[in-house]
Specification:
Shape: elongated
Distance between the termini: 25 Å
Helix content: 55-70%
Structural class: mainly alpha
Largest sheet: none
Number of helices: 9
């Protein structure tokens, strides 16, 4: 898999490696008393920064794949839900059962139970002293969709007459589908949490006020300036190597 660093962070890694190369070429003259900017420490830091940057990109790709897989799996749900509802209606069941199924289907479709008031209607009600606040009725988060699908499946299990010949509408198939969708949603949650944690570790490695590569680069530049002088060719070699603290 191609590992393309996130641009800003990648430049910091590459520039830090470039800086260490220049410092190494100065030979024995580069001999700071600060252990944090000694060549051995800087080389270790450069390797750690590159490794964690690659880990971020690996996990970002896996997270993206998990999200794509979940989206693809959930995409047919609205049409399937409508077919389930129609199968219930065709099963000669009490109207109350049908009404419950309609409610579940409506939530999966992302439809409101009642029409949303227009601005003009709200203004008329306000003029008569009635203040109406309507919040979003959509329950389209994956967690909500799963919860509603689970309720619909449990409703089906209470309907003896529900026995469709279509395999994808049968209770066992729908239960398996729910399990698969649930796992895919959990996979995304796990990947997202993992990615968030590794990014926090990356940011600490890069941008810690004292031990991050940006701070160490600035200290190393200052040391070179003290050894060779601000107008020296050596300092001019490294003074323009850019480092930027990136806030996430």
């Amino acid at each position: 898999m191609s590992k393309t660093f996130e641009t800003g962070h990648a430049k910091n890694v590459a520039n830090f490696e470039t800086l260490v190369t220049y410092l190494t070429n100065y030979g024995a003259v580069y001999n700071p008393s600060n252990a944090n900017i000694q060549l051995s420490s800087l080389n270790e830091k450069a390797a750690a920064a590159k490794t964690i940057a690659e880990q971020v990109n690996d996990l970002a790709a896996k997270n993206s794949n998990a999200i794509a897989s979940r989206d693809l799996a959930f995409k047919p749900l609205t049409k399937l839900s409508t077919r389930i509802l129609n199968a219930i209606k065709a099963s000669n069941v009490p109207q109350q059962v049908v009404d419950n199924a309609i409610t579940h289907n409506r939530k999966i479709q992302g439809q409101r139970a009642t029409a949303k008031l227009t601005d003009e209607e709200k203004q008329k009600l306000a003029a008569s002293g009635t203040i109406v606040k309507q919040v979003s009725a959509s329950q389209q988060s994956y967690a909500n969709l799963l919860d509603t699908l689970d309720k619909q499946i449990k409703l089906l299990s209470t309907i003896p007459q529900y026995a469709p010949n279509e395999v994808d509408l049968q209770l066992t198939t729908l239960t398996s589908l729910y399990t698969d969708l649930l796992q895919k949603n959990r996979d995304v949650d796990a990947r997202t949490a993992e990615l968030s944690t590794i990014r926090l570790n990356r940011d600490n490695t890069f941008y810690h006020a004292e031990a991050g590569i940006v701070a160490l680069a600035m200290d190393a530049k200052t040391y070179v300036k003290s050894v060779f002088g601000a107008t020296s060719p050596e300092y001019k070699q490294i003074a323009g190597i850019p480092f930027k603290t990136i806030k996430i």
